[in-house]
Amino acid sequence: MMLIPCPFCGPRNEDEFSCWSEAIPRPADPSSLSDAQWVDFVYNHRNPKGPVREQWWHARGCRRWILVERDTRTHDVLSASAAAP
Amino acid sequence: MGVEELPVQRFSFLSLLRNALRYRKGWQRMWRNPEPKRRYDVVIIGGGGHGLGAAYYLAKEHGVRNVAVLERGWLGGGNTARNTMTIRSNYVRPPSVPFHEGSMALYRELSRELNYNLMVGRRGMIAFLQGTAAARTAARMANTMHVYGANYELIDVEEIARRVPAFRPPARPRLPLLGGVCQPDAMMARHDAMAWGFARMADSMGVDIIQNCEVTGIRRDGNRVTGVETGRGRIDAGKVGMAVAGHGSVVAEMAGIRLPIEVQPLQAWVSEPVKPFLDQILVFSGYGCYMMQSDKGELVIGGPTDPYPSYAQRGTFPIVEQVTAAVLEMFPALARMKLLRHWAGVLDIVYDGSPIISRTPLDGFSVDVAGAGGFKTTPMAARMHAWLIANDEPHELIRDFGLDRFERGRLVFEGGVSFNR
Ligand SMILES: Cc1cc2nc3c(=O)[nH]c(=O)nc-3n(C[C@H](O)[C@H](O)[C@H](O)COP(=O)(O)OP(=O)(O)OC[C@H]3O[C@@H](n4cnc5c(N)ncnc54)[C@H](O)[C@@H]3O)c2cc1C
């Protein structure tokens, strides 16, 4: 069970959140991407065994988006911050 | 050189009897334990059912016998030994149904073919339809399946109660129960036996099965694969096939390739054994969980994948709680049963829920990503992967399961009980 330190609500049970995906910056000009580059952005993610930065949504809490850094081997939460300042 | 050169020992009633009379001293090892050679024509990474099966079919159907299977742990110790063994073909997209039906047909013959008892048994599976959307999807799925000759019957609640006498429709269900849909030909089989059966026959045809041998790098010359780095040194190979279930991204990264997958844990747990009372596999679709009774009498219960990526090979508690509540809503009488064991495996969930059996941008390097429910597909996926390796192009049965489908926008969307996107 993970305790996620929501920057707005403090430490909360993982069950209140929903994990969206790896935090991958949106391409600045999507229409200039080739199909292959678009597939890389949408589907071909790093999916790492180790630390990863993800977008989480505090769905059953403050309903804000946050960035969570977490280790996929151990479920250790390394940090959590607001997704948008 | 003793055991190394003996042909495979056949199992039969007579051989059992003979060995019983000789105090069981006549059994030989089921496969050798060779040192890796410097070079193989084909190296398969991953000694689960998919990898061992690929080696078996390469040797048997394509005469490619200079093959090694490299397994970082022990044979079948990954998801092959962790899954709940249901074999079914209730899928909704045209490419999926013949693929899964074909796999079921292979399963029915496999014990004989491998001379190894996989304990394949027809069980029947009933999915509860908890809501109109579920009922509509089931009707559509039944139509698709009928086109391909697979049997999928819609039944009403009385019929569920008739087929599952232990079930009494709950008086105040959380989700409305409209009926069920039954695949009478669904099966169960012994998971370890499949890995061992493939391993034994592959070994007898000359395949080297090398355990405790983790692949740590993939070697290339320009755009062509030339071998692998392992914990036991470098091994050259003409071709390399990957079948590592929950480690697809880790191994593909060694080849500089990213795959459209996300790793998610899937959990299961079993109760204490009780007298047989349930011969069907029950799926509570609305709650994303399922239950059946094993040959040993234990209730086997499984849920959806955990809702975030993890390689930890352990599940999280909310899923256990959610699934247990669902099972107890349907079978309140089970409330006092004790749970004995609980475990999780890690699955490479493909974004469209279908398998990937494909060439990759690196020549000679192919991947077989089982996806969510890959026990049922093991014989067919392995056979198709072997075909792909031998012929350098996909068999028509898997043409739609290539990596290129993502770029071409031809995704094969399937959802399983274990798929939560
Ligand atoms: C709880 C649970 C229930 C399930 N229930 C069902 C079900 O009812 N029906 C169904 O069809 N499917 C089910 N599945 C899915 C099914 O188990 C898998 O899809 C299938 O077993 C995958 O087979 P595999 O041979 O590809 O993988 P595995 O058996 O996991 O084999 C992959 C092997 O690769 C090895 N490996 C990994 N990295 C390396 C490396 N770098 N070098 C060397 N070796 C490596 C691993 O050690 C492992 O042994 C379930 C899974 C789980 C976890």
Quick structural summary:
In chain A, 9% of the residues lie in helices and 39% in strands. Chain A has one helix at 35-42; strands spanning 3-6, 10-13, 18-22, 51-57, 65-71, 77-82.
Task: Provide structural commentary.
The complex is a heterodimer of chains A (85) and B (421). Chain A has 85 residues and is mainly beta. Chain A has one domain: Folate-binding fold, CATH 3.30.2270. Chain A contains 1 helix and 6 strands. In chain A, strand 1 and strand 2 form a beta hairpin. Chain B has a domain at 122-186 and 262-350: D-Amino Acid Oxidase, Chain A, domain 2 (2-Layer Sandwich). Chain B is 28% helix and 25% strand. In chain B, the strands form 3 sheets. In chain B, strands 1, 2, 9, 10, 11, 12, 18 and 19 form an 8-stranded mixed beta sheet that branches. Chain B has an 8-stranded mixed beta sheet with strand order 6-7-5-14-15-16-13-17. In chain B, helix 3 packs across helix 9. The longest helix of chain B has 19 residues, at 96-114. Chain B is globular, with a radius of gyration of 22 Å. Chain A binds chain B through residues 1-2, 14-15, 18-19, 21, 35-36, 39-40, 43-49, 52, 54, 72-75, and chain B through 247, 249-250, 253, 258-263, 307-312, 316-318, 351, 406-407. The structure holds flavin-adenine dinucleotide (FAD). Flavin-adenine dinucleotide binds next to helix 2, strand 13 and strand 17 of chain B.
